[in-house]
Amino acid sequence: MAYALQQLINGLTLGSMYGLIAIGYTMVYGIIGMINFAHGDIFMVSAFIAVTAFTILAAADVTSIPLALTFVLIVSIFFTSAYGWAVERTAYRPLRGSSRLAPLISAIGMSIFLQNTVQLTQGARVKPIPPVLEGGVVLWDAPGFAVQIGWSQILIIVTTVILMSAFTWMITQTPFGRQQRACEQDRKMAALLGVNVDRTISYTFMLGAALAAVAGVMVTVYYGVVDFFIGFLAGIKAFTAAVLGGIGSLPGAMLGGLLIGLIESFWSAYLWAEYKDVATFGILCLVLILRPSGLLGRPEVEKV
Amino acid sequence: MMLSMEGVHAHYGHIHALRGIDVEVQVGEIVTLIGANGAGKSTLMMSLFGSPKATAGRIVFDGEDITRVPTHEIARRGIALVPEGRHIFPRMTVIENLQLGTVHADAANYEADIARMFAMFPILEERQAQRAGTLSGGEQQMLAIGRALMSRPKLLLLDEPSLGLAPIYIRRIFQIVKELNRNHGMTILLVEQNANQALRVADRGYVLQHGEITLAGTGAELLASPEVRAAYLEGGHA
Ligand SMILES: Nc1ncnc2c1ncn2[C@@H]1O[C@H](COP(=O)(O)OP(=O)(O)OP(=O)(O)O)[C@@H](O)[C@H]1O
Ligand SMILES: [Mg+2]
Question: Which residues cross the membrane (chain A) (predicted)?
């Protein structure tokens, strides 16, 4: 029981990060109908930006943890959004209106490009940072097993809940959110009403990248190490989360992220930890075969 | 002059859809375009929005050349379109659809405009929280018109607003067109399959054939014209 509770906490932490990344996949798919395969690498880049920012802070002898975290988040969000913008501008926009396959290939190319750039400039080894948030609280001192939640886990879960609420509010309640959804449903009509579609798509990429940047900072704080390959696995898992929740659906991405985090955590704890990635890929295959529209997605056919 | 198209050509790839269009709309007029399926009526309206872009010729709206202005900027200049097939946003509520008509509008006008819309289309007020995709065809058409009016356009383009509607809705639509023009001074460019009714409400009309204007005149002149009668009035549409 105590052990299971611990897995729940770990799973929620993981799921928060997958959920944040999954939103980027689902929003981009929603608005331009393509899977942005470079999104995982955008997340990886954000983690490296976080490492660099932490290193600068350490050199400057900043010791206040809230200050440091705020600084790193802002820096990482800023530069990662810029990456998100640039990727869309250079790799996808020129291909708009061409076949569906072209931007997909371009996305894979962009993914490889980002990985190699980081590998060349940052090195292929893992990069550690000094521990930022250590320790935690013991929630339940059960016989033989103490259930613990780390400060970093609290940070991750709380930040994610706040961000996702704010994000949902923005998409459902603000004029920008309305225009964003209008572009999703009927891009041509949105333009006829005066919505600047290109700009809305750019903002969508930047928002997805910003959320991935938060996940990147969290991963850096949580694990304390990053390498140029983390974007691949995290990307595929977040993509699975988006598909599981229903690609194109915002609540679906959040739910899918949570589920993938929980499944991974329980699978590792009770089944075979070595095969935890297989679990995710297995789910991806099952969803695609049995229910391609996902849990909260809508089926392709609909009455208009 | 509200709108003038001077020698406008437009293409879809190799298809030459508009072949030198000259059309004028004066302030406060209802002008109608009639023509067979595929004549280029919708293309003409869309070309005002730069989609497709005019490949030759000039479009002047309200004293400014808008031939090369990007699509999303045209709405800001004061043209609103009720497109063929309505194109409401199906997975948004009625009220959200109306709000999307105000992308450029002054937020200060919102309350007054929405009240005006609800007075004109009481059904929209009743259904304001309903997903637009679940409205009936006629209700969707009302919504599309309401959405266009929310931007307080100077020129309203209506592309086959009565298409596929029951007679009661068709009557209501023509009544709305008249009201907007008489009571609010709205300038309207109207495309209709229903040539008889369209020519009756219109001040002037143009006949479009294979991307060219073949005939122009007042509504009454066109109604009386033997060519128009033969091609568009006696044969089911009237
Ligand atoms: N997106 C497009 N791509 C290619 N060709 C098009 C496109 N839209 C219209 N066309 C062609 O341009 C011509 C004019 O079409 P348009 O839709 O303007 O006709 P219309 O007069 O509005 O007809 P209808 O009464 O059927 O609505 C037609 O030959 C049509 O096939
Ligand atoms: Mg048409």
Answer: 12-35, 42-60, 66-87, 149-171, 203-223, 278-297
Q: What is the mean pLDDT of chain B?
A: 92
What are residue A225's DSSP bridge partners? A128
Asked whether residue B74 is domain-assigned, the answer is yes
pLDDT in tens, B67-83: 999 999 999 999 999 99
Phi, psi of B9 (to 5 degrees): -115, 150
Give the span between the Cα atoms of A56 and B114, in whole angstroms.
54
- Interval between CA A62 and ligand 1 midpoint (Å): 66
| B46 vs A282: which has the higher pLDDT | B46
ipTM confidence: 0.93
Predicted pLDDT of residue B235: 55
Residue of A nearest to B83 (CA): A189
Contact (CB, 8 A) for A131 and A222: no
Q: Are A283 and A266 in contact (CB under 8 A)?
A: no
pLDDT at residue B237, rounded to an integer: 45
Alpha carbons B174 and B186: distance in angstroms, whole number: 14
Q: How many structural domains does chain B have?
A: 1
Contact B100 A182 (CB under 8 A): yes
pTM, entire model: 0.90
- Range of the structural domain that residue A140 is part of: 2-230
Average pLDDT over residues B10-16: 95
Q: How far is A193 from chain B (nearest CA, A)?
A: 6
Q: Which of B12, B162, B206 to mutate to test the pocket of ligand 1 (most atoms within 8 A of CB)?
A: B12
Q: Classify residue B157 by its DSSP letter.
A: E
CA distance A303 to B186: 33
d(CA A222, CA A153): 7
Residues of A in contact with B95 (CB under 8 A): none
Pocket residue to mutate for ligand 1, from B8, B9, B11, B15, most atoms within 8 A of Cβ: B15
Domain that residue B211 falls in: 1-78+188-238
As for how many domains chain A has, the answer is 1
Query: Residue B14: CB within 6 Å of ligand 1?
Result: no
Residue B230 is predicted with a pLDDT of 85
Secondary structure of residue A250 in the 3-state scheme: helix
| Residue B196 included in any domain | yes
pLDDT digits (tens, 9 = 90+) for A95-128: 988 888 898 899 899 999 998 888 888 887 888 8
Residue B221 resides in a domain = yes
Sign of torsion, CA A25 A31 A33 A39?
negative
CATH number of the domain that residue B59 is part of: 3.40.50.300
What one-letter code names the amino acid at A133? L
Query: Could you tell me if the CB of B43 is within 6 A of ligand 1?
Result: yes
Q: Does A191 touch chain B (CB under 8 A)?
A: yes
Ligand nearest to the CA of B211: 1
Is residue B133 a part of any domain in this protein?
Answer: no
C-alpha closest to that of A10 among A256, A268, A227: A268
Q: Which residue has the tokens 């949580």?
A: A222
Determine the residue type at A210. A
